[in-house]
């Protein structure tokens, strides 16, 4: 039997690891609630992908709804953001600050700091 024996100091360090951005995500707020959501989201669904365009394409492929707010085939209200290593959905502005703090991006290389982080800023 394989057994992992981590001392208390190492376990504590693993739990407090700095949060970083893992991927693009879109929170579709008005769709039926999914079972598995980021820990800070209570309603709707969150679709993630390499870029936000991938998330939109997934929604289009899985159903007949479009990623627009109004119209008979719309998904309703949604927000583009990112997932973090701590399983949180964050908006573009919070994601930008996390990415800067974790040296995932350089502030001077950001596409549009007024809007926040773009996946193209990361990779």
Write a short abstract of this structure:
The chain is built from four helices and four strands. The chain is an alpha+beta fold and 123 residues long.
Structural class: alpha+beta
Instruction: Note the overall shape.
Output: globular
Radius of gyration: 17 Å
Q: What is the count of β-strands?
A: 4
- Content of β-strand: 15-25%
- Arithmetic mean pLDDT: 86
What is the string of helix and strand elements? HEEHEEHH
Q: Count the helices. How many?
A: 4
Largest sheet: 4 strands, antiparallel
The strand line-up of the biggest sheet is: 2-1-3-4
- First-residue to last-residue Cα separation: 40 Å
Helical proportion?
25-40%
Low-confidence stretches: 11-15
Secondary structure layout:
Layout: H1 8-15, E1 21-28, E2 45-49, H2 52-62, E3 78-84, E4 89-91, H3 92-101, H4 119-122
Antiparallel strand pairs: 1-2, 1-3, 3-4
Keywords:
single chain; 123 residues; 4 strands; four-stranded antiparallel sheet; alpha+beta; 27% helix
Protein model, in words:
- The chain has 123 residues and is α+β, with helices and mostly antiparallel strands.
- It has a domain at 17-92.
- It has helices spanning 8-15, 52-62, 92-101, 119-122, and strands at residues 21-28, 45-49, 78-84, 89-91.
- β3 and β4 (89-91) form a beta hairpin.
- The protein is globular.
- It starts with 7 loop residues before the first helix and ends with a helix.
- The model is unreliable at 11-15 (pLDDT under 50).
């Amino acid at each position: 039997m394989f057994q992992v024996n981590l001392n208390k100091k190492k376990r504590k360090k693993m739990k407090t690891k700095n949060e970083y951005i893992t991927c693009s995500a879109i929170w579709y707020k008005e769709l039926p609630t999914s079972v598995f959501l980021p820990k800070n989201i209570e309603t709707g669904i969150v679709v993630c992908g390499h870029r936000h365009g991938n998330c939109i394409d997934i929604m289009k492929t899985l159903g007949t709804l479009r990623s627009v707010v109004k119209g008979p085939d719309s998904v309703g209200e949604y927000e583009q953001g990112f997932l973090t290593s701590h399983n949180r959905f964050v908006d573009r502005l919070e994601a930008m600050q996390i990415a800067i703090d974790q040296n995932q991006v350089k502030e001077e290389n950001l596409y549009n700091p007024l809007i926040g982080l773009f996946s193209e800023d990361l990779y």
